[in-house]
Amino acid sequence: MKEFIEYIAKNLVDHPDAVQVTETENDRTMTLELTVAKGDEGQIIGKKGQTVSALRTLLTNISAKAGGKRAILELND
Asked: Is the pTM of the predicted complex or chain greater than 0.70?
């Protein structure tokens, strides 16, 4: 899933080389921390938060079907 989020984020921002995704996992939860370059946060968040909300929904649905773990996407600045 890390690669999936990274691929999408790199295609949304002006500085794709600065995109970093860190994955942390335990028994019940997987947390993905997305870090982008200064100034690219708005492109990830999207208008009224729609882009980041869509990413979170995709991640939740994929993780539920793949292994049943709860997935969390955090945006770091």
From this structure: yes
Whether 62 has a pLDDT exceeding 90, the answer reads: no
Q: For the chain, which domains are there?
A: 2-76 (3.30.300.20)
Q: How far apart are CA 46 and CA 20, in angstroms?
A: 18
Q: Of all residues in the chain, what percent are helix, strand and coil, respectively (each to 5)?
A: 50, 25, 25
Sheet containing 20-25: give its strands across. 20-25, 29-35, 70-76
Q: H or E segment at 31? A: strand 29-35
Give residue 68's region: left, alpha or beta (phi > 0; psi -120 to 50): left
